[in-house]
UniProtKB/TrEMBL annotation:
Source organism of the structure: Diaphorina citri
Name of the protein in its database record: Mitochondrial import inner membrane translocase subunit TIM22
Assigned GO CC terms: TIM22 mitochondrial import inner membrane insertion complex
Keywords linked to the UniProt accession: Membrane, Mitochondrion, Mitochondrion inner membrane, Protein transport, Translocation, Transmembrane, Transmembrane helix, Transport
Subunit structure, interactors included: Component of the TIM22 complex.
Species lineage: Eukaryota, Metazoa, Ecdysozoa, Arthropoda, Hexapoda
Superkingdom of the source species: Eukaryota
The keyword Transport is annotated on this UniProt entry: yes
Length: 163
């Protein structure tokens, strides 16, 4: 029995020195799952760490999306309000009275009022759109382009009701 086992083994594993040398030069044959390398040409890496999964769930939550769209709408609305306030004079000349030039303080006050007005409106629209989109996505159970299209239509209809 013992001699048949010796004959079945390859010659380089029969000797312990050769076996140890082979392990030294070739390395460990045990491969761990975390060390699998998937080329980016084939696709994205399907293995995510727990931190990546947690951050992904936070970024995809409706609350986070709503906060981001509200803040983004506020900032963009403020910028648009600043831009539009430079074109629209607030004081209208009244016939029969002297034309009064505005002071810098009055101009800045009007700019602030215009910026805040635009910022609040854009923030409300951004929040409304995101809430409607998340509601549709939750109802449909899918995340595709139709959710955004439906949410845009519903949000536009709600804005039209106000006007």
């Amino acid at each position: 029995m013992d001699s048949s086992k010796k004959q079945a083994e390859p010659f380089f594993f029969a000797d312990t020195k050769l076996n140890n040398m082979a392990k030294h030069f070739i390395g460990n044959n045990c491969r761990y799952r975390e060390n699998i390398y998937i080329p980016q040409v084939i696709g994205h890496n399907p293995f995510k760490s727990n931190e990546e999964k947690m951050m992904e769930s936070i970024m995809e939550s409706c609350a986070f999306k709503t906060v981001i769209s509200t803040v983004g709408g506020f900032v963009l609305g403020g910028a648009l309000g600043l831009f539009s306030s430079s074109f629209a004079p607030v004081t209208v000349p009244i016939p029969g009275q002297d034309v009064k030039t505005q002071t810098a303080r009055e101009i800045l006050r009007e700019m602030r009022t215009s910026m805040l007005s635009y910022a609040k409106n854009f923030a409300a629209i951004g929040a409304m759109f995101t809430i409607v989109e998340c509601s549709i996505e939750t109802y449909r159970g899918k995340s595709d382009w139709k959710n955004t299209t439906y949410a845009g239509g519903i949000t536009g209809g709600l804005i039209g009701l106000r006007g």
